[in-house]
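Appendix B, example 12.
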Amino acid sequence: MQSFVVQPQAYPDKRAPADRAADFREIADRYAVPPAEAQSSRCAQCGVPYCTVHCPLHNHIPDWLRLTAEGRLREAYELSNATSSMPEICGRICPQDRLCEGNCVIEGSGHGAVTIGSVERFITDTAWEQGWVEPLEPGRPTGRSVGIIGAGPAGLSAAEQLRIAGHDVHVYDRHDRSGGLLTYGIPGFKLEKPVVMRRVERLAAGGIHFHNGFEVGRDATLEELRQRHDAVLIATGVYKARALKAAGNPQSGIVEALDYLTASNRKGFGDAVPRFDDGTLDAAGRHVVVVGGGDTAMDCVRTAIRQKAASVRCLYRRDRDNMPGSLREVAHAEEEGAEFVWLSAPDAFSGSDRVTGVRATAMRLGPADAGGRRAPEPRPDGGFDLPADLVIKALGFDAEDLPTLWGSPDLGVTRWGTVRVDHRTMMTALDGVFAAGDIVRGASLVVWAIRDGREAADNIHAWLRAKAASERVAA
């Protein structure tokens, strides 16, 4: 270990930008065994591992790096799998530059962080290939049933832990495939879909019941699910697109990011997608403007490039250093041909039947806002026009009005619309109804959803055990 002084940092080789922009395959292959061991050996084995501290799952990163460096890959996988429900997925899509790798001690020393995410992916992909990923083994049956609303990362992580605890688990999701944003939101060049599907298939084989195409409020109310199960977990995520305030109202050509990404991912599955096939959600040959600076905006930019757009520009109201998305994603997009127009915001759209252009306002960074970030403000001398016949709004997501949609006015929500919980127990205002993931914390990272799902499962299990004990005493 500690070979960082002689072993340079080396990520897996990326395919050439022109090659990877031509398909939706992941942009880099994983390590072979020798470079994985060599890169793992760079770990400094810190007494206080900041990588672990800054990982929401508190993965035992230095330990499985050491095991990988020693060639003990199965042990490395088992240790990685002990704290994460989806390590190969986190290895692909976590913003390691803001989490574990961004807080690596040797990164601060100028030697370049250990390539933690790439090694994490290598370990678990190898485990799948070698047959080390064991089937999900349910625990001793408890006779209790848990309903989970939402088959995204929080719901799937909770389902796995609850099934291991011996509960009967039913997962309800509005989509025809499980996985949530892992399936329909994140493009294949970041997360190929067989990686997600094999996780879902493992859970189904372990006895978890999936009810796809099931919409709470339409197929059952929340109260009806409460009657059906001993406990319910709300893990829907947040899907309501934030509004874009700009003058002009073209009848077509301005679309929501999630609609756009879902259509692209469905085409990857081979589905019939009428709004893609008629050109509404297809960027081919279009001058595309994406509005936003988060990871969803980066996904839209890079998807449009792969759909062979005539041009792709991203408008963001702050500068590169103050954008919320991963800087690695920005670099990948620039390599593939995207143009970033920093310090700019749309002011108006031109066109009547279809959008034909964007009138943008130049911005500057003013004093810091309440959150400590410098607030963007319009420059009095700035304004310019961009051609556009497809505008994609990627401004983030808010919670849907679940109490109204689900016919459950007693479900407490915050002023942001997220579900209100007791953060010690993760229970809502309704007895036996819990909530986890983005529907509680707001739009966030997959790794936080996984952590929340695992913690919710622990809390639900403890509540069900206490309830059973109380019933035995009463009897």
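The mean pLDDT is 95. The chain has three domains: 3-130, 145-239+398-474, 245-258+269-395.
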